[in-house]
Design brief:
Layout: E1 4-10, E2 13-19, E3 35-40, H1 43-53, E4 58-61, E5 63-64, H2 68-80, E6 88-89, E7 96-103, E8 106-112, H3 126-130, E9 132-138, H4 144-147, H5 150-159, E10 163-167, H6 180-183, E11 189-190, H7 194-203, H8 208-214, E12 218-222, E13 228-231, E14 236-239, H9 253-266, H10 271-285, H11 298-306
Parallel strand pairs: 1-4, 1-9, 2-7, 5-6, 9-10, 10-11, 11-12
Antiparallel strand pairs: 2-3, 7-8, 12-13, 13-14
Helix pairs in contact: 1-9, 9-10
Length: 315
């Protein structure tokens, strides 16, 4: 294929979302949820969908099963304008699915990884990487063939002349032992949220200052409704975000932030405009359920945001 703006690789699942319930059920209990949606899931999938709707040429690489959920996942990405020819079908596995119980800014998930856990580094063609401006990986902790090889993997990506980013997501094994000192030098942008960064530092027996000493690039440390903290070897700066007092849910907000940030980065926008686009996209994502994208194009994004009532930053 022709040159693409970005490759997004990583997790790959459908989300079953339950909203508006009083409490999480214990074993032997049943509770009722007022709202239920079946939507595009996975951090990588949601990020790719936003990137495509913001106007970038996006190639997606993930593993699905040869089943109806896999067909549905592919159709959702196709509908958003994501290039899906590099999706890998794992014949003996089911497409991943996540049950999401969402309440305000918090959520509890249970996932069957299935096919996505069988994605391998050699499923990502070097030639495609060479034809891409940027490579982004999301949620390596559900990808057993990647999680212990991240420094080596990203070193190879960088050697092919492509800029890089990583969104770690939650460590499902709760080890948090990814070798940051070996990994971070091969990342142009690192996207942990506040809790993930804290646990990764603890798992590496490392302070934030020690991480800064080896980091010549950017850590975009999302803080939920409190904004985002940008960290590099020169400074730590916190930005306020846009605020939705009545969110449908906050499931895709971090991924929408990542997509907005990477769009601005690839388009070489001024730094303040990159943050502005990322924060606007994150806030707008909370006006719809799950990982759905509420706009059809960059122009429609501007219209939807201006009509959303999210114009004031939280103070």
């Amino acid at each position: 294929m022709d040159k693409v703006d970005i490759i997004v690789a990583g997790d790959c699942n459908i989300d079953l979302i339950f909203n508006n319930f009083n409490k999480l059920p214990g074993f032997g209990e049943e509770v009722l949820a007022d709202h239920f949606d079946v939507v595009l899931g996975s951090s990588a999938g949601i990020t790719a969908a936003h990137l495509a709707r913001l106007g970038l040429k996006v190639a997606y690489i993930g593993a699905i099963g040869n089943d109806s959920l896999g067909e549905q996942f592919k159709a959702m990405l196709d509908n958003y304008g994501v290039y899906t020819d590099y999706l890998v079908i794992k014949e003996n596995f089911k497409t991943g699915v996540t049950v999401v119980m969402s309440k305000g800014e918090e959520r509890a998930n249970i996932t069957h990884a299935g096919a996505m856990a069988n994605l391998r580094p050699d499923d990502i063609p070097d030639q495609l990487i060479k034809n891409s401006t940027h490579f982004h990986l999301s949620n390596p902790y559900v990808l057993p063939n990647f999680r212990n090889k991240l420094p080596e993997f990203f070193k190879n990506i960088k050697s092919l002349g492509t800029s890089t980013s990583l969104d770690p997501q939650w460590d499902v094994d709760e080890k948090w032992d990814t070798q940051l000192k070996d990994l971070v030098p091969h990342l142009d942008v690192f996207f942990p949220n506040e809790t993930e960064l804290e646990l990764l530092l603890k798992g590496n027996n490392m302070s934030l200052q020690q991480l800064l000493n080896i980091n010549n690039h950017t850590i975009a440390n999302t803080l939920g409704s409190e904004g985002v903290r940008l960290i590099n070897h020169k400074e730590i700066k916190t930005y306020n975000t846009y605020y939705n007092a009545n969110p449908v849910d906050c499931i895709g907000a971090g991924d929408a932030f990542t997509a907005g940030y990477l769009t601005g980065l690839i388009e070489k926008l001024p730094h303040e405009q990159i943050i502005e686009l990322a924060c606007k996209n994150a806030a707008l994502s909370t006006t719809v359920a799950g990982g759905a994208v509420s706009y059809d194009s960059r122009d429609d994004f501007n219209v939807k945001f201006n009509n959303s009532g999210l114009s004031d930053r939280k103070r």
